Amino acid sequence: MNQRRILWIALGLSLGPSVSNSFARFAYALVLPGMREDLSLNFSQAGLLNTANALGYLLGALFTRMLVQRWGNRALFNRGMLLTACSLCLTGFVHDLYLLGLCRLFGGIGGAAIFICGGALASNIAPSDPQWSTRCITIYFGGAGVGLVLCGLLIPLWMASQGSSGWPETWFAMGIVAWLMLAITYWAARQIDEPMSAQGSADWALRPLLPAFIAYIGFGLGYIVYMTFIIAWLKAIGASSLQMSVVWSVLGLSTLLAPLVWSKPIATWPNGRAMAAILLVLALGALLPVIPFEPAWQPFAMQCSAALFGLGMFSAPSSISALIKRTQQKQAWGSAMATFTIAFAASQIVAPVASGILADWSGSLRSGLALSGLMILVSASIAWLQKDLKQG
Asked: How far apart are CA 160 and CA 272, in angstroms?
């Protein structure tokens, strides 16, 4: 397979994370202010809808682990795209809180299958060329960043022109785009050989990895609060639609630049140092919005917050993957990574609704955002305790 064809396949497949992460998961923050106003949602209800999505992601991760041997990565990836595209379209047609939650749930289930199985497919685009194989994985996960930028450029300005009642059309439009992307990802997935599972398995122990495991759960608890409520917070402090667009676009661009910053530390720093540094940057990004800056400095502070948060949000999972590869036998990589992913997904179920309840009680999102930043900061200190202890 020539390099141009490899590149086109990787780019086509990378539309999967745009749908699973940028549309089905994170775009909710951009549409939320309009939904809250039009549907008279309190923060608890708003958090509940993202909790439904997180629960779906957890179920999707569990289903993927159970079904991948029977159906294969390609089939699960394609079905995940189909389910997510349908859920996005349907979200634009319902106004009942529980039906919206059901749509968010199915979007999470499909999104997990896309993200997990697509990563396996991306790693097998150029299996005989290690350099291009790594590039393909980077391109694949970079699709989420591209989707974030597109959402940031388009959704706030569209919502501003349509008013709060324009949120259904926003979801429906994302669903239509997801259907178009489905045609491309289906073609890309058909060009890739089904990844073969590692033969055999190896026992592994969680205890030597416990600091990283706890830190990863804390990261999940903290980052989902930021990604759920940061745009609602911007609206609450009087930010314009243009400022919201800039902040979200900066966040997306920062995720694309993150591999340039963290690739070497993740690959070369021992123990949990890379993860601790990533979480420290994330914590700083999460805490900046709640610092009472002068009004003239507030937009710049929010842009810095988005830049720092974007640098860390997709790099923390990469640091976990590298840690597992350093400390576990190859046959145990899949089981260990699945365990971390499931715990990470489970941690995101409670945080949005708990933060929403706190915001309703206190009358402000500031306390929930502050706690999420402090949670990530504590997780950074726990990650620093992780040691590289090779098993077997």
From this structure: 43
Per-residue pLDDT reduced to its tens digit, 238-258:
888 889 999 999 999 999 898
Q: What is the DSSP string of 203-263?
A: ---SGGGHHHHHHHHHHHHHHHHHHHHHHHHHHHTT--HHHHHHHHHHHHHHHHHHHHHHH
Q: Give the dihedral of Cα atoms 330, 132, 20, 369; nearest 10 deg.
A: 80
Could you tell me the end-to-end alpha-carbon distance of the chain, in angstroms, rounded to an integer? 37
Q: Give the Cα separation of 86 and 240 in Å (integer).
A: 31
**Rounded (10°) CA dihedral 381, 382, 383, 389:** 130
- C-alpha neighbours within 13 Å on the C-beta side of residue 154: 16
Nearest to 112, CA basis, from 184, 190, 21: 21
- Give me the phi and psi of 288, to 5 degrees please: -55, -40
Q: How would you class 207 by CB atoms within 10 Å of its CB: exposed for 0-12, middle for 13-18, buried for 19 or more?
A: exposed
Render the burial of 265-281: b for 16+ CB within 10 Å, e for the rest.
bbeebebbbbbbbbbbb
pLDDT in tens, 330-356: 777 767 877 888 888 888 888 888 888
